[in-house]
Amino acid sequence: MADPRRAVGGGGVSGGGARMMNPMGQHKRDALTTAMEDGEIDMMSDDDNAAPDMTDEGEDHAVETEDALLVALDDLEGRVVSALDDFKLHPGVRSSPETNLFEELATLLQPVLEIAAHTGPAVARTYASYRVQLTDQSCEEAYQRLNSDLILPVVLELAQSDTIPAKRAASLECFHKLWKAYHTAGSWLDQTTAGPQAGPHGSGGAQLDTSGLVLTAMVSTRREARRTAREGELLRYWVTASIACTLPGAFSNEMAEGAVASRGTIAASASLRPALRHIAQRIRDTDDRGAGRLYVPTMKMVEGVLRKLLLQTTDSAEASRSACIKFLEIVATCCSSKVLSGEARRRTQTVRRSSITEDFSLEDLPTGHPIITSEALEEIGEYAFTTLRGLTLVGGQVRIDESLLPDRNNSGTDSMGNSLSPSAQIVSILKPAALAFLEVESAVEKRQEEEFKIDRDNLELDFQLSQKSYALTINAVSMLATNRPGFYMEAATCLARRVMDPPKYSQHGMLTKAGVLGITSHLKASCLTLLRNSLSASTNGCVILHRALSSVQMGPQADKALSMSKQAAALKKAGRAARNRAAMYYEWDSTSSEMDKRVTKKQRHTDALAEMRAAKAARGLGNGIQLPTCMTDAVELVLTNLTHLPKSRPVGGTEKTRKRPITFDFIADAIMTNGRSLSQDESRWYDRDGGTAWEMEIEELDDGVRQAQFKLDPKTLTAATSVLETKQKEKRDIADEQTQLFDEQCKIASSEAFSRIVTSSSKARSKPLADFGNQIAARLAWMLRGVQPSSNLKHSHEIALEGIKKASEKKGEGEKNTLLDFADNYPLVSSCLAMDMVPSSGSGLVSGPGLSSNSSGRPAVMGAPLSLANRVLNEAYLESFGVEGEELRDEDEEKYNRTLDAFVSAIVHACERANDKPNDNDRKSIATAAAASLPHHLAIVPAITPSSLTLASAMCDIDAVTKKAVEAARKSSHQTVAATASAHAAKAAAEKRATAALLALRDAAFQRSNTKVRHSAVDCAIAIAAGRLPGSPSVEDKALKLLMNVLFPKSPALADAVVKCATEELERAAAYALENAVKIKKANKAVLAKKGDSALLNKNPLVPISDEEKVAMECVKKPAVLFMALCVRRPEIIKTLFSISRREGADVLSKAVRTNMPKLARAASTKHGAAAIALKVSEMADENETTMLLTFLDNLAPSTDSNPPSQELIDACHEIQTTRAVADGEKDARFIIPVVSGMKREELVSKLPEFVAAENKVFMGALMRMCERVGRNALLFRDEPDRETPILKGMTLCEQLVFLHRLDFSAVGLPQKRYLDAIRQCLEEDEVFSNRVIMAALDYMSGMFLQGEESLPLAYMRTIILTCSKHESLHSWICHVLLPRLIEGGVYTDARQWEGWMRCAKMLENPIDGGVSSIETIQQLPEEQLRMYRAKYPKKA
Asked: Which of 436, 726, 795, 1362 gets the highest tally of CB atoms within 10 A of its CB?
């Protein structure tokens, strides 16, 4: 019969885990356990470590069990090795774009994690012989083979030495996952189950029958010791891996090193608290050696991270600085005391905590260890917190005195050579940083008694904090103040001082403008949080916090927070009854607030009606009486209210204005008109009883339908007829008073009737009814010519006039009079057009025809089909065609154009009013809604005019708002947070409105078929992007994107229009440059005369010289950049760019184009290929445009080490040089200079005569481009690995001098004078060809001469003589090394070189200032040569 345990084990291993077990196997296992326990207990010896005395059958059974366990462990080892091999062989690049690299790596390590934490202990339990000691042996063997000997060392090796940063990060994360998985049920460090099932010895919480398994105290102690050892081993591996990733020099690439250091710091942050808790437990168990084994690497890990933060200021350190600051917070937290409040604190010395993420403080550290003491850690915590305070107050790390820093080469020892304790090494890093800040703080406190302000401009910093690092620093200080009461007062003082002296924007700083605003808000919020804490009242920290918040206009919030703090502090000392009352209050308060939320929405609809009723009731009889529907009740109400009438007339009332006696009819009339009859003028017949002027007759038709007819009464008809006759006779001057009065009142009546129609249609709930009212109002607005608007529409008329005046000023004097005359002739039309731009006196805005209001009275959506403005525009469009049979007047023909201009100008003026007062919410809401409706309005109007598009483009002029926002950010320390936020919100709103104008231009270009309109829309967008029409930089950028990404690719016709308009804009820029050429030339000449030409020798020739030239370049830069962006999409127009920018006198435009040529070259090469675009541009450029072509080619070739010029581009440049050769076949060397850095050195040697023959400027430019990719090897002469197949590219500075000296000038046809001048030119450029470069070249040539491989070049000794004259620092080397070496090589055998040697020795023989002398070298000459030397140069007495 097969062993059931083998079957269960085999199934568990092969199935990926040994946790599942069938019921039949469970019964057999229980029976077998019971049978074995009876015989085995007696056979156990007294020694726990002795093996049981078994029978032969038992021995066979033990061998079988052991073999099964070994087989299972071998299988698991194979699976682990396979998974680790797959991980090692991973290339470090994600396999597909849909996956994530870190997820792929984690998936590869997942089998390792499962076997290490779950499958391993499960297999050990499965193959044990169900006795306590054998279970321990199986678990120990499984852990040793799988974890200790295989998984942990290999993962550590991967984290320490893998060359791919992502794989190192995955290995570090594996330790963290192992730590969590080890603590899960059934794993190595599990304590979720008490008793014999704890850890790997049970099934992790499964309810098994453990009645026969009784653990002795010795077994329990041994298991606890093994558990502690496993925990310590994992922590040591984890900490060691973190140390390896935080050490500098892990990668040569700074980005890779920064990424790995950041991951290592995160791993250190995660492992610090568990490591300290384990150390504390070791000390508690009196295991000082075990505590020390983990304490030393833990402190080394802390030291490495702190070195990364404070002592390394490279770019790679910046990448991990935020993680280091978070780690510094954890260090300060763990190395400080935690004072618990209120509740009782239970401290357990022997029972381990179950939570693996619990906090650690000095109270958790037992006493008794000689090195690991609370005092040592407390010192670290104090200095760490002081460093955090310094980072917060200064905004970076104050420059640390290097004399106080520990020597990195002698880590672990002091200046005297004595060994330091692990904590002292950390203090030696933190202490100088803390002292540097304390020195600054004490100096400021002595200098200023009340105001604490650091002069950061004159403060030297090791590094500055970015926004992310700064935010983490503030959070760290705030957290320490909250969780470590001992730090509260200092933390509160630190944050309060920083609030009163907030960070400011600087071009050289790490914080952007938005970052400064965010950090300032963060500081204020942190101070408010600390003030709300009960510790502020108990520690007296509330004083400085309240003062800081009050200084930034947050006094009300500070008062409320302080009251909450005092209340919380009082409750801590209050009795139970007071705390219970407070708890009930909070519960009721939250409940009521939830109820308030539920009823708020319903109440919002009834508030307006309740306010109206209350207002009417307060006014009394006038508007407070509403007649009931029942007639009897109405009569009784009138009779009751007769008692409320005053006994005397109101003050001011006279018989002249009150001709009607107070009768019952008078009172009834007052009630029926809701009081309006009490204040009306008797002469205004239409206001009170205008309805009586009409008589109604009802007649019955044949089909039973009743029909009503209306007609004027005779009196009114007579007056109207008289007015009409007077107008026809044009004798208004002799018209009687009644006729004039009737005429005026007719206009007033029509105006007020028009107002009522507009108001009723705007408030109508039915869309058809509202649209019908808009149609009537639009027609009446054109019919009632010259009728002034009523008081309800007066404001909208004034807004329309203001907008028309401003629009007319932009268009010119003639247009100004035309639009103003239009507004005077049709005041109701202009009022209708601007009606949506006027706030009402009541709820905030007029819910006009084009505006639907929400419950808050603010506009929700403008531009609905019910818009009155659209109806007015439609009427104007119809009237512009005239009446059939009548001649079309000029006024009618231009009526629509002027109406559309007036409407657009009203919208633009509404936006300008919002820009003038950004804090006016009504103006901002109106402008936002109006701007959002503009694209819709222009999309549905019958026609669009170019002038309307030009007016709409004025919405992009938001410079005033932008400047206000910038000024608010600059003066943020003197303003409240609300004011600064409001300024930025106003800027964002203005940019959104400007975007609406760009959308309108887009729609006009897309949707209109009129070519003139489409061209005008494109021209406006071009003008905005080029700066001809005013706009902020962000708006100009959006306009550029609209042209490049939307309009240009839409259709060929639009693309042609964009190119045409951009060409016209570039022509304007060229004309502007020509107009200002004389003035710029004069200004540049004055600057050169003042500063001198020498001050501008090393200056970039493309940089403007004078202020006038700088202004002109800014004007022409935007059109040039716009056109160059189009050149990327249409390379053939590069010819146009070159021809326009190279016009005589347009030097400013040429400079602007050449300045931005790198952008064009890079984009064109990316899109079309560098070689192809180079050949194409060369074919288009003529002789006059050679300078522009060379600039283009120079920027086309990359100059970075990682991206050299391609061979295709090199071949293209050679082809260009050949095709553009002059008539006599002479090639221009300038065409291949851009690609010499990518050419092989052997080819450059052959091209060297061409460069020498060129001008000095071209020659030096070629040398500079040759060495730009091999700058780090400037002092070397590289040897070809294989002379038959040369591969070296470029030419170092040393090689340039060597090959120049080797050049056979006579063989290549160079004059000797030009050859020597070229070498002299190199020696004069001492900033490039320094003394070290010259020494390296001379040393190499002399070495080759000494070895006999080649003779000295012709100009060699001449170069040495020139070097002696120019570089005094090389005199010693020449005297003691070079000249003796030449003697040793037999320089005197060559007469020419020997003559040069003697001249050089003579120059150095008798130094004037007592410097280095060549006398010793002269004495080394052979006797014959010495006599020759002395014969020519006798020795002075």
From this structure: 436
